[in-house]
């Protein structure tokens, strides 16, 4: 049986007592959460539940009021090269003049020195990442000329090039078509098969059980977390979403996914 401290050292992400406040109002309150290695976790909760804020606080983009974030037992600040981040597409200025390959190569910035020109080897790595998301042909395109789904694939390629142990994604399926969603899910599942850990803010409750093996239900506080079959229950969803989910929606969400069937298709 693994002790608490051992579990934290082995865990790609361990959060303890995390609180974030805006204007003295806690929007994330006293959250404890540990990801098992190689897991794929959905963070779900209603609008304004603090999901994006939690991710940003983990990454140090937003200031933590209290709490501790550890990556494989070390403070996250010392482990940033092992953590890749796919931000919300809407949070980025896509008019900024940059090509697709520029954006993907940015994923290597911790390996580059300012005096080093981007080497042929780096371009090759960027092209490999782009080919994993079906975007190799767009390498020299301006990012402002891409569709929403293509932008999302480019962001994913930027995370892939990092070969990080932990990848954090904020709504990677928002505003993408079914084909892109399927392509992204396949890439994420492949990362999981490689033993990498994924943590993903996700809005579509109907696909949680098909795409993810773990879930964190959040509404300012941690309502529940664990393997999907244990934590993604009608009672926990009710506690997280309150009256926003009808009894019929809850019943549908509890129906098992048929073997070989993907709810996302
Ligand atoms: N920079 C900010 N300054 C002040 N308040 C903020 C800021 N960012 C977020 N908030 C507030 O914090 C709360 C949590 O926001 P957050 O974006 O983390 O929620 P979310 O669960 O990701 O929501 P959604 O599902 O709508 O994306 C909201 O009430 C939001 O208005």
TrEMBL record:
<comment type="similarity">
    <text>Belongs to the ABC transporter superfamily.</text>
</comment>
<dbReference type="GO" id="GO:0016887">
    <property type="term" value="F:ATP hydrolysis activity"/>
</dbReference>
<dbReference type="InterPro" id="IPR003439">
    <property type="entry name" value="ABC_transporter-like_ATP-bd"/>
</dbReference>
<dbReference type="InterPro" id="IPR017871">
    <property type="entry name" value="ABC_transporter-like_CS"/>
</dbReference>
<dbReference type="Pfam" id="PF00005">
    <property type="entry name" value="ABC_tran"/>
</dbReference>
<dbReference type="InterPro" id="IPR003593">
    <property type="entry name" value="AAA+_ATPase"/>
</dbReference>
<keyword id="KW-0547">Nucleotide-binding</keyword>
<protein>
    <submittedName>
        <fullName>Manganese/zinc/iron transport system ATP-binding protein</fullName>
    </submittedName>
</protein>
<keyword id="KW-0813">Transport</keyword>
<dbReference type="InterPro" id="IPR027417">
    <property type="entry name" value="P-loop_NTPase"/>
</dbReference>
<dbReference type="InterPro" id="IPR050153">
    <property type="entry name" value="Metal_Ion_Import_ABC"/>
</dbReference>
<keyword id="KW-0067">ATP-binding</keyword>
<dbReference type="GO" id="GO:0005524">
    <property type="term" value="F:ATP binding"/>
</dbReference>
<feature type="domain" description="ABC transporter">
    <location>
        <begin position="13"/>
        <end position="245"/>
    </location>
</feature>
């Amino acid at each position: 049986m693994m002790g608490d401290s051992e579990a934290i050292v082995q865990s790609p992400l361990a959060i303890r007592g995390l609180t974030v406040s805006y204007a003295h109002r806690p929007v994330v309150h006293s959250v404890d959460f540990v990801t098992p290695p190689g897991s794929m976790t959905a963070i779900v909760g209603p609008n304004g539940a603090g999901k994006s804020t939690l991710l940003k606080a983990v990454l140090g983009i937003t200031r933590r009021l209290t709490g501790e974030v550890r990556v494989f037992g070390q403070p996250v600040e010392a482990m940033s090269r092992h953590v890749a981040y796919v931000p919300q597409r809407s949070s980025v200025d896509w008019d900024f003049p940059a090509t697709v390959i520029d954006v993907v190569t940015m994923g290597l910035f911790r390996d580059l020195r300012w005096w080093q020109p981007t080497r042929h080897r780096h371009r090759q790595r960027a092209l490999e990442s782009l080919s994993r998301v079906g975007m190799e042909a767009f390498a020299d395109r301006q990012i402002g000329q891409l569709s929403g789904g293509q932008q999302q694939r480019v962001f994913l390629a930027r995370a892939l090039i990092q070969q990080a142990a932990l990848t954090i994604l904020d709504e990677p399926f928002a505003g993408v078509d079914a084909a892109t969603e399927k392509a992204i899910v396949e890439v994420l599942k492949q990362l999981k098969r490689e033993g990498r850990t994924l943590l993903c803010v996700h809005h579509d409750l109907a696909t949680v059980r098909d795409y993810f093996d773990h879930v964190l239900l959040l509404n300012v506080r941690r309502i529940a977390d664990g393997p999907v079959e244990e934590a993604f229950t009608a009672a926990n969803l009710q506690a997280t979403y309150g009256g926003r989910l009808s009894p019929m929606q809850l019943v549908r969400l509890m129906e098992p996914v048929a073997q070989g069937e993907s709810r996302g298709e």
